[in-house]
Amino acid sequence: MLQIDFLVMDMSFIYLSMMVKELRIEALSIGLELLKLSKSEYTSYWRTLIENIRREGYSGLLTYSSVFDPLETQQIGVWNELDFIGRNFSLPLLNSMNDSMIPFPKGMVKTFSDYFQYFKLWLKYPSSLLGLAIPLGDSPPQCIENYSANLTLQNVAFEALFQAMNQVNETFKGIIVFRWDNPSSGDSYNERDSNNWACS
Question: In degrees to the nearest 10, what's the CA dihedral of 30, 34, 39, 42?
């Protein structure tokens, strides 16, 4: 079944690579958090996919958007064939009224900085932080747009993140801030049941 998935992906990316070449797209991610497909036993499939995209004439930057370590980033075997490491790093924050649960800004900076320092071992590749989430709410987690966010706390975390990035700026090539689930998109989660991911 997974081989069929790669065949479909390969065909899709052949058409996509033609399109992005014509549109002069600067960067393309060949996958997003495909934990079952990004394991080492599928490395040869990923190599073939990359070769086929290049063969179609796409000369822009290529990456793979991995779940931040330890879930996925280190298990991917084709980083040396991509242009930079893509890491999705979500920052969900509860709207807590308990002061003991609210971290201090300096503590946030240290937490983020410690994460990023760890990735200095990846410095032989340019790296990029790709994902930042809107805050996670406290009621109910499966609902879209139905949460109470602590925007003050989110702002503190946002500023702390950039301070930490500045401390290890040689680790990053760029950042993209995106919304985890966009209700206006066709694939938005609109069923309120336990099978859905929690909103971010």
Answer: -50
Residue 156: CB partners within 8 Å, gap ≥ 6? Answer: 105, 108
74-119, pLDDT tens digit by residue?
788 898 898 888 877 765 555 555 555 566 778 878 877 777 776 6
Structure tokens at 89: 């790093």
First to last CA, the chain: 31
Indicate the burial class of 37 (C-beta count within 10 angstroms; 0-12, 13-18, 19 or more): middle
Give per-residue pLDDT as tens, 163-175: 888 887 766 667 7
Q: Specify whether the CB–CB gap between 39 and 66 falls below 8 A.
A: no
DSSP 184: T
C-alpha span between 72 and 80 (Å, rounded): 16
- Between CA 197 and CA 189 the distance in angstroms is 8
Are 30 and 46 a contacting pair, CB within 8 Å? yes
Alpha-carbon distance of 29 to 169, in angstroms, equals 22
| CB contact at 8 A, 23 and 15 | no
